[in-house]
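Hello Y.,

Per our agreement to keep a running log of every chain we model this quarter, I'm adding this entry. I've kept the format consistent with earlier entries: sequence first, then predicted structure.
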Amino acid sequence: MRDFSKAARKVAFFCITGLQILQTQPMSQFEFRGIWVVRGSLTSQEDIERALRFAKAHQFNNVFVQMRGRGDAFYDSRVVKKSELVKDSQFDPLEYAVRRGHDLGLKIHAWLNVYLIWSSDRLPEDEQHVFNQFPEWIDKTSLGKSTSAADAPNGNSNPMQFLSPAHPGVTNHLVKVIREMLSSYDIDGLHLDYMRYGDSDFGYNIAARIEFERRNGVDPLRLFTSSGYGMNPVWDEETQKLMQKWNLFRREMVTDFVRRCSVIILEMNPECLLTVAVKPNPKQARNRYFQEWDKWLTEGLVDYVLPMNYASDIRGFAGVIDEIYDVVPNKYWPGIIMGISIFNQSSLDSRDKIHYSRITGFRGIS
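Predicted structure for the entry above:
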């Protein structure tokens, strides 16, 4: 039996008493107090200084600095071209963030958007951008599209371009990115974001199709077309089993890279934490985005996952926690840092969720 009652049953009590109790429940009661700093706030010394001092003043102890936003680099790299947002080519945002963060007693995590490489109606013009250098790496839907506008955490509806998790070239490239970062910077953590497919209909990159057919004897695109292009998903038993294998294949592609990152960190810097920002509902994460983050916890592949529980109302927020209760055994809860938004709700609503995360057993928030 779990240690806690269903989260939703606490909502009525919490809504009445939460604001009063908050006054006696400071942020410092959380072991892990994280804050994400987006790349637009990391382009100069002044911006970084402002962000780090804000984090220190508000009792955060872990800072996620976005160093890979759209297939680019906010640090000095031989693998990836520096972002055009960094106007001073001699300035290294990550070096400065790590040095000043450590001066302030903060832990600095390099935040990387892994498979997401672009999100704009206008495609990248730079010939050295990965999108233009390696078009064969871009993931595709069953209809051959390469863009997804689904479920961006901040409400952004711009079309998003993803790399294929199943393409060997993608994996090799990302391994180089991570090895370079670990060897060049004294980071306290590596934080992976967009560690998933674009949506349920992604994964049909030609390299993925070839590999799946090699293993299972059928092109996964044929499974889709046999259902009337998704309009008549009634299959015989054999086709159902193949569809299950196709879904498993995509989950394994993502998990294999998380496992690869874990091995690299243990080899190069065992003190560095590996954390992943994830879709908050573990069932949806697994079945729609092929992001099996509960498995990453139970197999010890990551130190923490950060479910992006961005529901604006407390009942929706609590409902997601119920879903986590149902899937993740209690002993793995110390590895969950609850992600809370501020962009879609008032500061009081965010404070309510911070406190609610505490009383439902989470040791950290971000």
